[in-house]
Amino acid sequence: MTNNLHYLIVKEKNKKTITYFEYNKLSGFNMASKSKNLKLKDAINVNKMIIINPSFIEKLINKKINSKIKKLLDLLNTIYNNDETSEDPGSAIIEALNEVEKFKREMINKYMEYMTKEQLRLLDKKIKILEQEVTMRAYYLNEASEEVYEENTKSR
Questions:
Q1: β 29-32/48-51 pair status
Q2: Fewest beta carbons within 10 Å, which of 43, 58, 93, 120?
Q3: Global pTM?
C-alpha cells in the first residue's frame, strides 16, 4: 500500500463535520515546506499546502513581496555605503541590477495570477524606482571614474 494519503483541514466554528475536497482540482496558491527533511514524531508532516482563501493569498503574497523588496533595499544600501571604500563598485551595481531583474521576473512568474491590477501597478512602480536608483548610482560612479581618469591624464 502506498502512502498517498491527502488531508484537508477545515476549521469552522459551529460545524462538527469533516469536509473532503479533491485537492487536485482546487485552484489556489501553492506553498511548499521550507525544510523538507523535518520529521517529527507524533505529528503531521506537511510537504505542500494549497491556500484557497483569496484574502489570505493576498496577505501571503504581500508579505513575501515586502520581504524581498526589503532585501533589495538593504543591498542598495550596502552599495551606497561601500562604493567609496571598494575597489570595483561596478560589480556590486551589476549584481544589484541582476537581483532587481530576478525579482521582477519572479514576481511575474509566481504571483501575477493572484494579484489585483492595483497591486501589480504598485509593484511595477516599486520595481521601476529600484531600477532607477541602481542606474543613477551607476551613472554617478561612471562620471566619477571619468573625472579621475581626466585628472590623471591632465597632470602630465
A1: antiparallel
A2: 43
A3: 0.67
DSSP secondary-structure letter at 42? T
**Residue whose cell numbers read 571619468:** 146
Q: What is the pLDDT of residues 42-101, one digit of tens each?
A: 777 777 788 888 888 888 888 988 999 899 888 888 877 775 555 666 777 888 888 888
Per-residue cell: 46: 506537511
d(C-alpha 10, C-alpha 29), whole Å = 17
* Spacing of C-alpha 132 from chain mean position: 19
Strands, E, within the chain: which ranges?
A: 29-32, 48-51
Cβ burial 1-35 (10 Å sphere, 16+ → b, else e)? eeeeeeeeeeeeeeeeeeeeeeeeeeeebeeeeee
Q: How far is the C-alpha of 65 from the C-alpha of 63, rounded, in Å?
A: 6
C-alpha–C-alpha distance, residues 122 and 130, integer Å: 13
Question: 106-151 pLDDT, tens per residue?
Answer: 888 888 888 888 888 988 898 898 888 888 888 887 777 666 666 6
Contacts for 90 with CB less than 8 Å, ≥ 6 apart? 138, 141
